[in-house]
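From the shared-data thread, chain only:
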Amino acid sequence: MTNKDVVLVLKNLAQMGEASVYRSMYQGRACITKTHATLVERDFYCSAAPYVNAVGVNTPALFEVRETTLCMEWIPHAVSIEELAQDTNTFEQLARLHGVERPIQPHFKHHQWSLPQTQSALEQLSLTPELESMLYQLQQRSDVLFTPRCVLSGDTNPGNWGRREDGTLVLFDWERFGQGSPAIDLAPLVAGMGDKSAYQAIIARYKAANPSVDSHSLFVELVLAKAWIVIEVVNLLTQRGTPNRDRYLNWYNSVLPQWLPHAFRWASLAESLR
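Structure, as tokens:
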């Protein structure tokens, strides 16, 4: 299983909820129609999108809202995780999003990493007690991820970015729009589980766009966010009966024994130096 496979499962999971997404036409223009859109996403496009667009965060144009159906601009060109991670505009847009100050919509997605979520995910994985203990301890430190410091996309995996015909980079699929640490939006830009140098590279690119960020604190939060994604994805795989579920679980079972001890050490060491 490759890093691209991991990106693919995240993209597919986002398409397996109650919403249905398909291409259509609106007044002679190609568009995306999304039915059964969540209240959070409808609020985003109706209330928050004008604010984030005004500061330079590109989102699809909203053509029409009909009850729970959104009709939006179609973004034609896919973007790879490698391209996103190297494009300074990715991090400029995220920094601008994270800098939006006012409360700009009635409803946010409430992100959390709870003990029951961890227990549910570990029931699906085949990890040693020692590795399970590391995940539990990372979960116990995760509150820092969800303190409402800034607004977030909440789902910046490469399947939710695209380019217009003119090359403009656009971020879409805002059903996880919420609040918390910038690390939540940076973690999906690290391919696979990543290593220390990969996290440092992402932080350096983000810090170039947001110089006020504390690199040491963000490093810890980025490690925690990557661990949280494991829990989120494993539980979604199980809840939604995803095809090839076992394939993805086998991938986690193969990479987590190497990754978790490093992640636990990075988070513990960085916290001890604060």
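The mean pLDDT is 90.
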